[in-house]
Design goal:
Keywords: Methyltransferase, S-adenosyl-L-methionine, Transferase. The chain is α/β, with parallel strands linked by helices. It contains 8 helices and 7 strands. The chain has a 7-stranded mixed beta sheet, with helices on both faces.
């Protein structure tokens, strides 16, 4: 989850330009699983705190990706109020542990409540308050199955570098908010955040050791897996 609510539209359907799929079909896919009561509460906490939260489609995709790799160890950069963390935990192995990092200790208090309200036991998550790049540099090389990044967009390329160090072969890195606001494909937008997003996309696409895809769920997920060889 991003710390800035402005990063995400109040409704992810706003500003969608669909190619080959009509808006009602896109909305149907976005709400394929939908939010339960716990997630709805976490979203309300995010709105009250001015924190951005990934959309339902992105949350569903995160659960699927975590389940696909049989994730036991996951790192999340940007805890928010627990929407994305809960999606990851629900897809992970039942003996798996989520390590989630956020600058704001209050965000993490709210995320802890979200996880516990959903029936996640406290031994399955580790909340670390601090600057992402200060924390993740201390985590173990090659130990993690999935790294999810939803924090300072301007630091995404640095997050990518750390994620590739942390991931085992076959592990997945995911970045949220790639398509938010339609700025990235529009060359007229040259602000630092948009430029950083373009740099990230280019770095992932041009890395021969990665197999990647840009998924148009919610606000967009950039996903990549480390080749097994």
């Amino acid at each position: 989850m991003s710390s800035a609510a402005a990063d995400y539209p109040a409704d992810p359907r706003e500003g969608i330009i669909a190619s080959g799929i009509d808006p009602s079909s896109w909305a149907y896919a976005e709400d394929y699983i939908g939010d339960d009561e716990v997630v709805t509460g976490a979203r309300a906490s995010a709105a009250d705190s001015g924190v951005g939260a990934i959309g339902s489609g992105s949350a569903t995709a995160l659960s699927l990706l975590a389940a696909t790799v049989g994730a036991k160890a996951v790192v999340e950069i940007g805890t928010g109020t627990g929407v994305s963390g809960l999606a990851l935990l629900r897809g992970m192995r039942t003996d798996g542990t989520l390590t989630t990092v956020d600058l704001d200790a209050e965000n993490q208090r709210l995320a802890r409540k979200t996880f516990l309200d959903a029936g996640i036991t406290s031994n399955r998550f580790r909340l670390i308050a601090g600057a992402a790049l200060d924390v993740v540099t201390r985590l173990t090389d090659g130990h993690y199955d999935l790294v999810f990044c939803d924090a300072d967009r301007r630091e995404n390329t640095a997050y990518l570098h750390e994620a590739l160090r942390l991931l085992r072969p076959g592990g997945i890195v995911v970045f949220a908010g790639i398509l938010t606001g339609g700025r990235v494909p529009d060359p007229a937008h040259r602000d630092p955040e948009t430029t950083a997003l373009r740099d990230l996309i280019r770095a992932v696409r041009e890395d021969d050791d990665l197999v990647s895809a840009l998924l148009p769920t919610s606000e967009g997920l950039l996903t990549a897996t480390k080749r097994l060889n």
